[in-house]
Design a protein that fits this description.
38% helix, five-stranded antiparallel sheet, four-stranded mixed sheet, alpha+beta, globular, 13 strands, 2 domains
């Protein structure tokens, strides 16, 4: 994630901010500009705004979920008819929001979804809606389990469903402990499920990449139900970390792919954030001199360079965590086998990106 600043006072901002924490100025994120804009109302045009540093540029409106729920900060170009931004339009089912706790949990989920979309769009991956592609367009359903219906987080033909309990930190931590996971977040779930989506959208139809993916991850045509039964009956192999990014990835080739895909997105977003904050680390492979390597997605075409920066950055992150007496921020070990799986994801993304965000 890049850094942003308020053009009124110069305060550094986060991607999620909809008002400046220093001067209180109204903000909005424009996916067309790829930037958080400081907004100024347009005289005589109600609910219309321009960027304070480029008032002659584009005009924007606030997303309806900003106005109604204070749940979004993405903008809509004023010449578009939509009431919702391009991110919120992909949410097909909203959870019940009869109290502030549930509203706050939904905001947390939508925030994670926008960060996911920012990365996908930045990688030039296709993000078609269900209107554009009724059979395999992308949509999100954020639902709450009831006595009548049990909701499971998962993916099916472009529809990503998230059990809203995952937005509850205590539920998520309890599940993480019970399942022996080292990492469990809402953003991690969404990145994992979109991995399943892009397997169907990009890999499965590809005569070039499907054989290579099966050679590395295994044949996904083996029984998924049998794999689930075996995994929960017997657990992961003792030496699973030799070949898999997580114990869950051992269950089935689909899960191995989705876990690896999610991890690759973790890498890219974190490296871009490090670069945006001008973080530089020493390269572990350099001997005889203290060369500094700046983390940057500008090197995304060179996987070995990318991985070298990732190793260096995570070493620093864990060192800082230990200095605070905290668990490692990055509790993963990347074996050579896992590195090659990440390389394949990298190659597929770079080869199959389309270069534009499609609009309905």
């Amino acid at each position: 994630m890049q850094t942003f600043k308020c053009d009124e006072c110069g305060q550094l901002l986060f991607f999620e901010n909809n008002s400046c924490i220093r001067c209180g100025h109204l903000l909005g994120f424009s996916i067309e500009e790829g930037d958080v804009l400081s907004l100024k109302a347009v005289k005589d045009f109600p609910d219309t705004y321009v960027d304070v540093i480029d008032p002659q540029g584009g005009q924007y409106r606030l997303c309806q979920n900003t106005i109604k729920y204070n749940a979004c900060n993405w903008l809509i170009p004023a010449d578009e008819p939509h009431k919702l931004c391009v991110s919120c339009r992909l949410t097909e089912v909203l959870p019940p929001m009869q109290d502030e706790t549930r509203r706050a949990q939904w905001v947390r989920v939508e925030t994670a979804k926008r960060r996911l979309l920012y990365t996908l769009i930045g990688l030039d991956l296709p993000v078609p809606s269900r209107l554009q592609n009724p059979e395999l367009g992308l949509a999100f359903r954020f639902e709450e389990s009831t006595e009548e219906k049990q909701v499971f987080t998962g993916h099916a033909s472009g529809i990503i469903t998230l059990n809203m309990a995952e937005a509850n930190a205590s539920f998520r931590e309890n599940a993480r402990e019970k399942l022996g996971e080292v990492y469990r977040t809402v953003l991690g779930h969404l990145r994992h499920e979109c991995g399943h989506y892009y397997w169907e959208l990009l890999v499965l139809p590809s005569q070039k990449w499907l054989p290579k993916a099966r050679a590395v991850f295994g044949d996904e045509q083996i029984s998924y139900q049998d794999a689930i039964d075996n995994h929960y009956a017997n657990g992961a192999p003792v030496n699973w970390s030799d070949n898999f990014i997580s114990a869950y990835a051992t269950m089935h080739p689909w899960e191995d792919w989705a876990e690896t895909w999610a991890h690759y997105l973790h890498m890219l977003d974190t490296l871009e954030t490090a670069a945006a904050y001008d973080l530089a680390v020493k390269s572990p492979s350099t001997k005889g001199k203290n060369r500094r390597t700046k983390s940057s997605m500008r090197n995304k075409d060179d996987f070995d360079k990318l991985f070298e920066m990732w190793y260096s950055l995570t070493f620093v992150l864990n060192g800082l965590s230990r200095s605070m007496g905290m668990p490692d921020t990055y509790p993963f070990v990347i074996s050579h086998s896992v590195k090659e799986k990440l390389r394949l994801v990298h190659d597929i993304i770079n080869d199959m990106a389309v270069g534009e965000l499609q609009e309905e």
